[in-house]
Amino acid sequence: MAKSEFDQHLLALGGVVVQRLQARGIQRADAEDAVATAYEKIIVMLPDLSVRNFDGWFYRIALNAFLDSLRRRQNETLNAAIPEPAAASPTQFAEMLAPLPANQQELLALKYYYGFSYQEIAQLLGLKPASVKTMLARARASLRTKWEE
Predict the structure, then answer these.
(1) Is 115 left (phi over 0), alpha (psi -120 to 50) or beta?
(2) Alpha-carbon distance 18 to 24, whole Å?
(3) Can you give the pTM of this predicted structure?
(4) What angle, 0 to 180 degrees and rounded to 10, lies between the N-to-C axes of helices 129-148 and 54-81?
(5) Which fold would CATH assign to domain 83-148?
(6) 3-state secondary structure (DSSP) of residue 127
(7) How open is the CA angle 145-77-133, to the nearest 5 degrees?
């Protein structure tokens, strides 16, 4: 494929991928941002790229870019909702965590109110740091679910 043919194919593919992402319920602006991110990755990776199904690869890169941006926005929202230790009293923090089970409340308090590291929490509770990280991820997911309800 000549360079101009490849460029034309790439532009057409971007339009198709935007439509496919919109068909999945993604807003047009978010879909276009995801395709732009995929274009950026192609520019960086093209000299060394060896993909059998280029169109499928491009779609997957765009979808992953959208999912990454969605996760970032959700994390920013969650982080913005968790008060800084100096700004929240222990009572306010406890009220915010009240819908969660006691073990998840304890983990979130140790991490986000008292500022302990995963390693320190693991030592305090007699767990492995990887277990603490997993349990905290589940606690954050539970908290997010409770807030969304």
Answers:
(1) left
(2) 10
(3) 0.49
(4) 80
(5) Arc Repressor Mutant, subunit A (1.10.10)
(6) coil
(7) 65
